[in-house]
Amino acid sequence: MTTLTPYHAIKVDPDKCIGCTHCMKTCPTEAIRIKNGLAAINALRCVDCGNCLRSCPVDAFYVEHDNLHQIEDYKYRVALFPAVMIGQFHEKYSEDQIYQAVLKLGFTHIFEVEQPISLLVNEIKEQVREADSKPLISSFCPAIVRLIRSKYPSLVDNIIPLKVPHDLAAAFAIETLRKKGIEREEIGLFYVSPCSAKMAAVKRPLGEKESVVDGLINMKDFYNRIMQVISKDQVEDTGELRKHLRRDGILWSLPRGEARHFKQKSMAVDGINNVVKILERMENDDVPDLDFLELKSCHQGCAGGILLTGNRFLTVERLQKRSKRYPFIGEDDLGCVDCNAIEPTLKGEPILPNYVFALDADRMKALEKLQKMDRILCQLPGIDCGACGAPNCHALAEDMVQGKAKMTDCVFLQNRYLNENKIDVKRATRNLENTWGQNRFDADCNKKGGRNEGF
């Protein structure tokens, strides 16, 4: 598998960031530090889960995406979106109205990415049957895949090496249009993403060299554009565009959407902090006898994606109601489309571990650094206050042994050194300014981050 430079859809706007530590405290991989008064993301550790964006009180985090005008570069313009997008809309808007609005935006074809889900279900079941080591872990959520390969590398062999639904849907769309005599070069495939992790998975996919998707669209932006053009009157019947959609596909991205196919021998966990607890138990062989493990970074699955506009519980309720109007998957769900042309695109390359949490590539040096960390931790107060610009004392000690921090970054140790005349006040002030920026400690009653924030 080709190793590419890490790409992350989440960015920090330095003009908005106030260095408040909310993001740093909520990051599950400790990828964020405060430097010179601003949040700084460690690209190697970030998994694009979006916790930082959710927690930021000043909207300093944003998601980078492509411009919708790019669709004009293609003769045939395909909108690929997951079923959760439909769940964003109030019940007063029908599927036909939403689909018609998407066509008004300039697209020529629409595919909900879960339409060919029957192929994925069958392949997962086959791999579970043949697996020697269980439970197998779903590769559906790219944030979880990245979390495992970096923080729990011993579990990468448990990840099912299959493409995610949007890539499968892209292959399905290409094959459908090919049957109509349309060449691949004429087709632009644009994925409407519910989260930053899926955007990163398109730009820098794991388990494949590159994604066949041509462009990315922020679902929140797409929703707003649809609301500007959606008709409140009766529109044409667009049911033909959903003829391959099944109940299982509509529910796929929700909790137990995948696990329901394995009944009692499966478990579904949503919310990345809950997932971390399960993975830690799995590393210690402390999980039930399971065949399949469904792990999703967001609460309520993709209904809780950071790029959705609606309430995640209402989205789940709407999708559950919608699903009841559709049949379960069957034997011939894809009709005349040549499944033999699509099935080879299912399998990805094995996921490789990424040892970004290792203290050193050399085992002896790593052991020396670990011992040094233990000695440093004896000196630190263990308060985990974050005043050093790291999320906790353990993270600060790790930064120290990696040469990224020093003992005086801890405000408590620095105060002790001042009392012992080991450093002077000017140096102590300079140390604080390196973390929090200049003038951060000046009195200001309008300062954001205080009790009366007034955001």
Explain what the structure shows.
- By secondary structure, the chain is an alpha/beta fold.
- It contains 16 helices and eleven strands.
- The strands form four sheets. The protein has a four-stranded parallel β-sheet with strand order 6-5-8-9, with helices on both faces. Strands 7-11-10 form a three-stranded parallel β-sheet, covered by helices on one side.
- Helix 10 (272-283) links the parallel strand 10 (266-270) and strand 11 (292-296).
- Helix 13 (363-379) packs across helix 14 (393-401).
- It is globular.
* Total strand segments: 11
**Spatial extent as radius of gyration:** 24 Å
* Helical fraction: 25-40%
Which residues form runs of ≥5 with pLDDT under 50?
none
Rough outline: globular
The proportion of residues in beta strands is: 5-15%
Task: Summarize the entry for a quick read.
The protein has helices at 22-26, 51-55, 95-104, 117-130, 142-151, 165-178, 196-203, 219-229, 247-251, 272-283, 312-323, 339-342, 363-379, 393-401, 411-419, 425-436, and strands spanning 10-12, 32-35, 38-41, 61-63, 76-81, 109-112, 136-137, 187-193, 215-218, 266-270, 292-296. It has 455 residues and is α/β, with parallel strands linked by helices. The strands form four sheets. It has a four-stranded parallel β-sheet, sandwiched between helices.
